[in-house]
């Protein structure tokens, strides 16, 4: 039985550093490395596999079966599943051919699968999919192809770096199921993730990383139920399933802020991505919107914000039909919080300029300072450009910017789903609080059902056919 | 994009441009101060001193006395039928002259292009493979220098060196290799400068792509890596750059042929320009433009063929 | 799809490889000529190449000392009043296409090309044939008709060539026949074995149109051509090191001049033209650009034509002050930018020139600067020689730097009557009408008494010298390169025949 | 969106070379106040010396003076063309962006058509017929140069306009002008300037080529290509006089090439 060991590893790259006195991974076990973003998870993965990371400095040893490895392990003993499968696949070669490469050059003789066709059937792809190039496959499918490669490849360990990043619940579940096969095939599995759901579903052991060191390690069941370190506790309490349920909104006089009636929309006439949707969103209410990726959730938000014109149907703000005068008058009261805080700030401007020149000036000058201090931000951040500020800070600034407009209706399009849970929670909590305080309506878009259940008053779901339906959780 | 759509698009573009060039030359001529009928008369009855009477005869036989819009429509129609009329200098059919000179030009352009690519691609690849080395620096400086020096200068130097000093090439005859190789080399040099830089960048870019590393993870041997995974991806920016190469080819045809006294389209164009032989000029310009468009269409088709998966 | 590209590539390769024959060399008995003069339409009157290479011949020709002798005409006699001339056509001559030379063909030729050749300057009323004689009738006495018929543009082609306007071939009677004229830039000739006169010893000739002087020079230097004509003066220095080729410089009766449109104000004023003449530094141009100070013109005709060169005339001089004075008295005042103004009109002219004689554009720029100094703004336009002839024809030419021979018609009166008679010609004056001068020309053309002729010459030359219908700049040294491989070459000062049939290869 | 070239190393060299050129073109003729057209037929093709630092040409004109004035002429035309092209390209791109629909499509098609024309050919054809002169050359080069800037600003602009941060500003009620000034222009400008730098080099080359071919530029204008063409006959006698304009051309084009590579470059994806 093989083992993978890290001894006296000291890793650093840029701002990040990680200090690992000793870690041991065994074949046949799966181990999850969890931690907030910035805790050095990816550095550990790189060090273990031996893959080059630009700017990384490393001291200490990585040992295979007790003796220091005499070459990078990724070539023979470790198979690495990348964070972004889209970047790891050759964009011009059919995926089947790329899968066949593993059979040709790195196939595991112990593996029962003898052909790309057979393995692809196992992971739920058909022959036609194999003839496609990566750009024609969805993110989930690409990740499954990568897993198929890992299943076939000759390796004692598989290291997966954030394998569920950006995937919706359905795909996530599928990936987790497939990961189970690594254990059954007798390989060791090391999964880097910030998602405790994934960790609890997969892990035998859990390693929790705090700022630059190992905060806690042990059996998954123990660590997750009985955390000993602060870092673990924080992670657990920020996981959506552990969020406190929001108090039910007191029913207010019925006055829909936004109302859609029989709205149909599609970029091509023949295939509507939204058909005959009817919804009313009241002030002070948080409405959740759920749906698989690509199902038109964002488009629905844009329709509510009058950024798109419906093909048919009626959109109303405050009970009156939309027209350009109304839009102009109410524009700043209908806001949107974007998925990625980095793209929602102009990259060339200092943040102060964004707040001074491109943000509605609120009547109350103190609001900004108040929000800043509540979200733990200092004024000197405003002198920087967006790329000089961390993602979490930028997300908080984005929230402040949106709230300064004092919107009556706010669309939150998967806010910070690419950041870690603590930031996500903070974002959603602040918005929920604002919503109840100023009784403004919020449309919360997410592919994470747990988040919506915890925070939304009502949850709607968009199906692939573009049907909107109310989900009940009784 | 489907093949049909691509071809339709290209056809439309070619049509538009043909009309654009034809219109330009028509209006430029008809806004000229000189009397076109007189000019034609002078050319047709070379050596004489045509008078107004003769000019009127010409005017009538060429239909120059009709309303200008009718003439314009006729001109466009003629252009679309590739009928450019008769050269004012030789009295021959312009199409006949274009065919004659075009054959000469095609020969040099074809081999010049092949040689240029054959020169640029290995150079660029070697530079990229050994990026940062002295070899790379030397080759990069050399190709940058080549691309900065105007091609007429390269041509002058080549003539002095190979024709006059070494006597390895000639300036007369149209098809013998003694004549052609130095022309081909000059064209090749002049297009290879920038092309090799593009190849270099493309290869370096591709080699830095994460999927190259992951191909190694899949076990692809390092010696096969670039050919299996890099080539097709590195080719794309190079193919995208080809229209620029063709543009340079066209300019080279004009300048280099003039210096080498090679009787191709470019040489003929410069002489037609000097003689103000408008029908020949417009025919030659259009021939060159169409040749350029055919080249870009071919390269687009090639791109489409290689990357058609991507578009669907 | 793959096949499509393959097919395209193969087609390209095949077209490019259908290479015609390799490069011809002296070894294959071929004389090659690099010439700045384009071949043009294959008509004797339009293409100097045809007569110079010996494809077509004229009725008469000059000997080296200027006497007119018969070529295709065996003999000729005028009537007493010199208004009817009978040319007896040489017998036993046939065209390259096999048809015999007859008086009928000759008459048809002369009639057809009358307006396009030097014949237009003769007062011809009728051209007919009688038996083996061609009869030319004139409406006034005309003594120089035989000389006129020696001009290269009166060459005779076969009857078949007269029918179509522009053919791909031409059949003359000369020592060389055209074998291939499909390339508009090249004429391939071979020796005519049935030639009636001295047959050529060299079997093939290639006449190459090479417009670029630098390329002609390079070709001569590389030994690619046996002859390169009209080279820059510096060629002597540049080719000094080449041992296979010699640069020859030969004074010929030719002039470089500034042609002025006399119909255009203010160039229509004698004083203005005189001022322009005074402004030009002929010595400077002759010594620095032409490379021979002796070619600076002191009057229209060079000393090599002693009958026409009048030593008593006051030579042209360079005197910008005088020029300014003349212009001032003509009513011009200098504007702020140094350019003369009269009645609100700036004195600006467009000057055209061409580069088949490579020094002309350089002289043009020199003159441009000299005229600028006296306040005349000149813009330059450079093309080939048709910019002059076309501009003269359609009247748009304002000024031009030109070069013309006095002896295309071997008697300089031909050049005078072509260039200055009745509003001028391509290479002479333009819109300069002087009845007195025209009368002198007409008188000269019917006079046979040598003394009277001498007086008339003096009068005509003096008139041109005074009025400057065209401003003479320099006389002419022709610069050409001749390979050491050939011998027996003499440059024909009449520029009508390269004399290729006399050439032999050097031992 | 952008493909930033990796060759940023020698940018200082590019700036220095370019600055030197600009200074030379601007102040050179003032400091070395010799008439570039003054001819001295007594000293033609004289070698460099005290009186003529770079010697004289075939008409005895001072080569240094002609070189300096040639710099001014080429640079003047090239910069004028680039400035006009940027202006026209941006305005039309703005119109296309703003109006959308048919107008946008036809503008894009038209610019594609003009872009597909080999510019120098058109310039040759029309410069000959329209007669030369600096204004005509500027006009003709402008006519063929603008589509490049149109394509660039259209494609970059489209990506910016569709971006989240512009949408955020629109939702925040910022006016179109303000968004353009703060968010669009500062992003597009470096791309335009980078392309402009290359273009200036290319136009200097194009002008030299026109001068060499003797089309569109009339003597006695001091122009580098024409100087080369005039002097190449005398290359054995006066090599320095010939080398001077050659080096000048290479200098400018190289300087601008290096300069443009130190700025972001982009391949507009409009195919």
Report what the structure shows.
The complex is a heterotetramer of chains A (474), B (312), C (507) and D (271). Chain A is 33% helix and 26% strand. With 474 residues, chain A is an alpha/beta fold. In chain A, strand 4 and strand 5 (67-68) form a beta hairpin. In chain A, helix 3 (95-106) packs parallel to helix 6 (139-152), helix 6 packs parallel to helix 7 (169-184) and helix 14 (366-374) runs antiparallel to helix 15 (391-404). In chain B, helix 10 (222-260) runs antiparallel to helix 12. The radius of gyration of chain B is 24 Å and the shape is flat. Chain C is of the alpha+beta class and 507 residues long. In chain C, a hairpin with a 5-residue loop joins strand 4 and strand 5 (84-89). The longest helix of chain C is centred in the C-terminal third of the chain and has 18 residues, at 450-467. Chain D has 271 residues and is an all-alpha fold. Chain D is 70% helix and 0% strand. Chain D has nine helices and no strands. In chain D, helix 7 (176-213) runs antiparallel to helix 9 and helix 8 runs antiparallel to helix 9. Chains in contact: A-B, A-D, B-C, B-D, C-D. The C-D interface holds C 213-214, 217, 232, 234, 237-238, 281, 284-285, 287-289, 355, 358, 361-362, 364-366, 368-369, 372, 379-382 and D 37-39, 41-42, 44, 58-60, 131, 214, 218-220, 230, 232-234, 236-237.
pLDDT average of chain D, as an integer? Answer: 83
Please name the two chains that share the biggest interface, counting residues whose Cβ lies under 8 Å from a Cβ on the partner chain. B-C, 55 and 63 residues
Low-confidence stretches of chain B: 46-50
What fraction of residues of chain B sit in β-strands?
A: under 5%
Order of helices and strands of chain D: HHHHHHHHH
Provide the helix percentage of chain B: over 70%
What is the first-to-last residue Cα distance of chain B? 6 Å
Task: Itemize the secondary structure elements and their pairings.
The complex is a heterotetramer of chains A (474), B (312), C (507) and D (271).
Chain A (H helix, E strand, L loop, with lengths): L2 E11 L2 E11 L3 E6 L5 H9 L7 E8 L2 E2 L9 E4 L3 H4 L6 H12 L9 H7 L4 H4 L8 H14 L4 E5 L7 H16 L3 E6 L2 H7 L2 E6 L2 E7 H6 L4 H9 L17 E10 L8 E9 L3 E5 L6 H8 L7 E6 L2 E2 L2 H7 L3 E4 L13 H7 L8 H9 L16 H14 L4 E5 L7 H18 L2 E5 L3 H7 L2 E5 L5 E4 L3
Parallel strand pairs in A: 3-8, 3-9, 6-7, 7-8, 13-18, 13-19, 16-17, 17-18
Antiparallel strand pairs in A: 1-2, 1-4, 4-5, 9-10, 11-12, 11-14, 14-15, 19-20
Chain B lengths: L2 H28 L5 H9 L7 H10 L6 H13 L13 H36 L4 H15 L2 H15 L11 H31 L2 H8 L4 H39 L4 H11 L2 H34 L1
Chain C lengths: L1 H16 L12 E6 L12 H5 L7 E3 L5 E3 L2 E6 L5 E6 L13 H10 L11 E7 L2 E6 L6 H4 L10 H5 L12 E5 L5 E6 L12 E6 L3 H9 L5 E2 L6 H4 L6 E16 L9 H10 L2 H9 L29 H10 L3 E2 L5 E3 L2 E2 L1 E7 L4 H15 L3 E7 L2 H9 L4 E7 L7 H7 L15 H12 L3 H18 L2 E14 L2 E2 L16 E2 L2
Parallel strand pairs in C: 1-10, 1-11, 16-17, 16-18
Antiparallel strand pairs in C: 2-3, 4-5, 5-7, 6-7, 8-9, 9-10, 11-19, 12-18, 12-19, 13-14, 14-15, 20-21
Helix pairs in contact in C: 8-10, 14-15
